[in-house]
């Protein structure tokens, strides 16, 4: 694959993508770089090496190909380098994101069988007449070496005398679109209780280990429902943005997501189960 990178070409490999020291990099990524300046690229090749948790690999590329697709581990730091004609661009590093956010999350009335779209700037309301649903897509390389937590942050507690039940929801492929798989139209009874959340407080994140309920890659969904019919509260959703006291916030600030309170899954891996390499793989030109 070829990715065009504009700008000046140095006498060595340059302009790494992601940039050196970058953070919050996606777990499926295409590393890219610029070849050195030459008047004739006939026979020019690049040797690319990357190392880090779960990955030690060296590949060769013929000009103008300059993209190396990799699958990465969450919350991990990787080192990589590019050699062209024996000349190195230096050693670059980046760190991957350590959280997975929902591809869908919204609250609905589960007793109403009609299309129910998500309301912009809405939180996840959980009450007698409202359940919250969240859908995640698990990458294939999240395996038994990881402890997986679901992290939820309440926004407002209106009334809470009991707890909130956390379910695994078994319907795959639901969405918020105007089609037959809209969450409002499909079966919402496919619920398996996982845990009950007690002692909830506004703006205080609560975490639960759900590793035992994730047994493969692909789609997994979760739901929230109050135990007591008189209880009512809301959780932050992926619609949450940074707040300010400015009266004209929407005019003065762009859309800035406040991801620290979004519902998410976090991953902690056992260092002893993963091969972590700080040195570049063998076979790299020196």
In brief:
This protein is an all-beta fold and 286 residues long.
Characterise the protein shown here.
There is one protein chain. By secondary structure, the protein is mainly beta. The chain folds into 2 domains: 14-96, Immunoglobulins (Immunoglobulin-like); 99-269, Jelly Rolls. 1% of the residues lie in helices and 43% in strands. The protein has 1 helix and 20 strands. It has one helix at residues 249-252; strands at 14-17, 22-25, 28-34, 45-52, 55-62, 67-71, 77-84, 87-96, 99-100, 104-108, 124-127, 131-138, 146-152, 154-159, 164-169, 191-197, 206-209, 218-226, 232-235, 264-269. The strands form 5 sheets. Strands 2-8-7-4-5 form a 5-stranded mixed beta sheet, with no helix packed on it. Strand 7 and strand 8 (87-96) form a beta hairpin. The longest helix has 4 residues, at 249-252. The two termini are 26 Å apart. Residues 245-249 and 272-280 have low confidence and may be disordered. This is Fibronectin type-III domain-containing protein. It comes from marine metagenome.
Radius of gyration: 23 Å
Average pLDDT metric: 89
CATH top-level class of the largest domain: Mainly Beta
Oligomer: single chain
Classify the helix fraction into a percent range.
Answer: under 10%
CATH topology of the largest domain: Jelly Rolls
Query: Which sequence of strands runs across the widest sheet?
Result: 2-8-7-4-5
* Main pleated-sheet profile: 5 strands, mixed
Model regions low in confidence, pLDDT < 50 over at least 5 residues: 245-249, 272-280
Shape: elongated
């Amino acid at each position: 694959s070829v990715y065009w990178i504009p700008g000046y070409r140095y006498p060595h490999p340059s302009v790494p993508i992601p940039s050196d020291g970058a953070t919050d990099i996606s777990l499926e990524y295409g590393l890219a770089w610029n070849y050195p300046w030459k008047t004739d690229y006939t026979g020019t090749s690049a040797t690319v090496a990357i190392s880090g948790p779960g990955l030690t690999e060296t590949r060769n590329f013929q000009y103008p190909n300059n993209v190396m697709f990799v699958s990465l581990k969450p919350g991990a730091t990787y080192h990589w380098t590019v050699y062209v004609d024996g000349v190195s661009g230096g050693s670059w590093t980046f760190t991957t994101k350590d959280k997975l956010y929902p591809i869908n999350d919204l609250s609905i009335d589960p007793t109403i069988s009609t299309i129910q779209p998500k309301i912009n700037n809405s939180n996840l309301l959980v009450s007698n007449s409202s359940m919250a649903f969240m859908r995640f897509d698990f990458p294939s390389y999240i395996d038994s070496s990881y402890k997986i937590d679901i992290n939820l942050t309440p926004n407002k507690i209106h009334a809470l005398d009991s707890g909130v039940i956390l379910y695994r929801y078994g319907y795959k492929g639901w969405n918020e679109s105007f089609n037959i798989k809209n969450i409002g139209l499909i079966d919402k009874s496919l619920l398996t209780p996982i845990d009950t959340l007690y002692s909830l407080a506004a703006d205080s994140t609560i975490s639960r280990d759900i590793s035992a309920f994730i047994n493969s890659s692909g789609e997994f969904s979760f739901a929230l429902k109050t135990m007591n019919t008189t209880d009512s509260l809301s959780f932050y959703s992926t619609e949450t943005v940074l707040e300010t006291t400015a009266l004209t916030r929407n005019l003065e600030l762009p859309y800035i997501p406040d991801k620290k309170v979004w519902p998410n899954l976090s991953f902690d891996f056992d260092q002893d189960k993963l091969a972590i390499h700080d040195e570049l793989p063998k076979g790299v030109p020196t």
